[in-house]
Amino acid sequence: MTASPPTERVVAVVELLAATRARLTAAAVADELGLSRSTVAAVLATLEARNWVLRGADLTYRLGPGLPGPAAGPAGALPPGIQDELRDLARRVGCGVALSVVTETTLTFVAVAGQHGRVPAGVEVGTRLPLRAPAAASVVAFAAPPRRRTWLDTADPTQRRELDTALTEIRATGVAVWGIDPDDLGTLDVLTEVAGHLPHSPATGPLRRRVLGLLADLSGYPHTTAELDTDAELPIAYLSAPVFDHDRVPRWELQIGPLRPAVSRPEREHYRREIRTSAHRLSAR
């Protein structure tokens, strides 16, 4: 089936409003999605006419009561207790934690806990990224085969075999562990600092998206189970685990980010155990 660009733009606007806690102006929506302001204005006008979004006196938008399904209601609302679970996980592992919702085409951060570790720029509530490998591997690993194949097709051809093997191991263990070149950790810090000085505005939108794209390219490589079971210290960027809905469909990805060049085997086992525990708790909600 051929995708419909106009429909995708409508879906993108609704997903962004559902993912961010802040009310957004039409200009902010256009900037975040890389769309023209006239296109976004037309989409929002149509959604407002059907009461799918509400426009405030300050010309900002939020989801409205006319939107069918669980997305209706205050933008960015999360079930009670999820933020507490993320903060508790961050305390247990001593690093930043994030939760994202994963669709067929996008990954959007909906909750972040950074009190106990650094969080790269761009990993903030409302940030929406196109879904391409290796992002959201822990969710894709439990998806149907056609979706896994589509995801693999977005990867560099030289990495597809490695990522396909990683999906198999993730299904067996429930956790993905991503390594990173120690030199890239320094690059990540520089890009994070640059992104942190770029305000959310139309003038800096294109540059900010380029910086976030470079950050996404530093996502690293999957550690194999055999590597993780050795006594050698390994560089680790982040770990991820799927969170399922009541129908046991993977909808969200939970991430923790040690961002460390050398992690011992006991520490790796601690990280894996704790993220699995929290992912199971979140799925139970």
Automatic annotation (TrEMBL):
It holds the Pfam family HTH_IclR. InterPro entries: GAF-like_dom_sf (IPR029016), HTH_MetabolicPath_Reg (IPR050707), Tscrpt_reg_IclR_N (IPR005471), WH-like_DNA-bd_sf (IPR036388), WH_DNA-bd_sf (IPR036390). Keywords: Transcription, Transcription regulation. The keyword RNA-binding does not apply. Residues 4-65 form the HTH iclR-type domain. PANTHER family: HELIX-TURN-HELIX TRANSCRIPTIONAL REGULATOR, ICLR FAMILY, HTH-TYPE TRANSCRIPTIONAL REGULATOR RV1719. This is Helix-turn-helix domain-containing protein. It comes from Nocardia halotolerans. The lineage of its organism: Bacteria, Bacillati, Actinomycetota, Actinomycetes, Mycobacteriales.
